[in-house]
Design goal:
about 375 residues; about 15% strand; three-stranded antiparallel sheet; 2 domains; Aspartate Aminotransferase, domain 2; seven-stranded mixed sheet; Aspartate Aminotransferase, domain 1; single chain; 12 helices; alpha/beta
């Protein structure tokens, strides 16, 4: 049996090697290394895939989140609501811009931001909500957008783990992740469902004015060359990464299908084990399984993780410390126990290998090994 990895990028690359290599070679042959043809091609193809008016490629997902907040013209002290159970980048950019991160609890079933918690956290200083579509499933966007409309707030979607997932609105509309709020952000980090071979990210919007401002901010605040109208940054997707992404975009739906098939295998294997809580599928959203994350009930997580490691099976904990308990974000407003759901999740979650190349043999070995320890 092939070695089991959390993400098997090498096997994935081998299947598309000729196309990827040809794309990279074309960039080298044309020497258009920054912006240019391949970036434009990928941008247009991703706009078509997402059915969104504007895709603005940038250097990475964290840049995308920062640029999104800069484009909204928020002022120091303005409050931005985001979940406490997520990767640090979501709150990091808020703090870097001198804004005030306001963290809230999440839903135990879906891991995503709790709409009720958001509602309770809104104050006159609140200007934006940043829902994170964690592990590959959309937050309850219809309810979040209704709240935002009621209170006059911006919505910036952190879709760094959910590209390709679809949200189903009550009126029958089906909208891709990242394309529902004012701005959506994604990451093309190599392990993402649509990942490059370095760093990369993008912003999505259907707002023409916001798109123009985002493009300017990402290019040193410049629209006309050497004329800087606003304070900006330098963030761009390079042409080699765009060439790789343009190839992989053609296979994204296939990759999603493979991940969903692996998740279904895990679900079936664990369905009769009450001590393992499998990921909940929200009927309002498809799940693209960036991660397959179990909740452990009365199980020694460290012991299970060590046991799996001894069997050659990697398992990861996303995320062991919620944002409000991180040293860098300690705040007198928050203390241990304030967000019980996030704190419980941080103590009980464990993610199993999840990628496009998992074989039935590997899945059988992984699930049997987990059950050997648990049952």
């Amino acid at each position: 049996m092939k070695k089991i990895q959390m993400v098997d990028l090498k096997s994935q690359y081998e299947k598309i090697k000729d196309q990827v290599d040809a794309g990279i070679q074309e960039v080298i042959d044309t020497t258009t290394f920054i912006k240019g043809g391949k970036v434009n091609d990928f941008q247009k193809n991703l706009e078509k895939y997402l059915d969104v008016k504007h895709v603005i490629p940038v250097g990475n997902g964290t840049d995308a989140l920062q640029i999104a907040l800069m484009a909204l013209g928020l002022k120091q002290g303005d409050e931005v609501i985001t979940p406490t159970f997520t990767f640090i980048a979501t709150a990091e950019v808020v703090a870097l811009l001198g804004l005030t991160p306001v963290v809230v609890d999440v839903d135990f079933d879906t891991f995503n931001i709790s709409v009720e918690s958001v509602k309770k956290a809104i104050t006159p200083k609140t200007k934006a909500i940043v829902p994170v579509h964690l592990f590959g499933q959309n937050a309850d966007m219809e309810a979040i957008l209704e709240l935002a409309k009621e209170y006059g707030l911006y919505v910036v979607e952190d879709a760094c783990q959910s590209i390709g997932s679809v949200y189903n609105f009550a009126d029958g509309r089906k909208v891709k992740s990242g394309c529902m709020g004012n701005i959506g952000c994604t990451s093309f980090f190599p392990s993402k469902n649509l990942g490059c071979y370095g760093d990369g990210g993008a912003l999505f919007t259907n707002d023409d004015e916001l798109a123009a401002k985002i493009r300017a901010i990402a290019n040193h605040g410049m629209v006309v060359r050497y004329h800087h109208d606003i304070v900006g940054v330098n963030s761009r997707l390079d042409s080699i990464q765009a060439a790789i992404l343009d190839v992989k975009l053609k296979y994204l739906d296939e990759y999603i299908y493979n991940r969903q098939a692996a998740a279904n295998y895990y679900d079936k294997a664990f369905e009769n084990c009450e001590r393992l809580i499998v990921p909940v599928r929200n009927e309002k959203s498809t799940h693209v399984f960036h991660q397959y994350t179990l909740k452990l009930r009365n199980i020694d997580r460290a012991g299970l993780q060590k046991y799996l490691e001894s069997k050659g099976i990697p398992a990861m904990i996303y995320y062991p410390v919620p944002l409000h308990l991180q040293k860098a974000y300690q705040d007198e407003r928050y203390k241990p126990g304030d967000f019980p759901v996030a704190e419980e999740l941080s103590a009980c979650v464990l993610s199993l290998p999840m990628h496009t190349e998992l074989s039935v043999e590997q899945l059988e070995y992984i699930t049997k090994s987990v059950l050997e320890y648990v049952v």
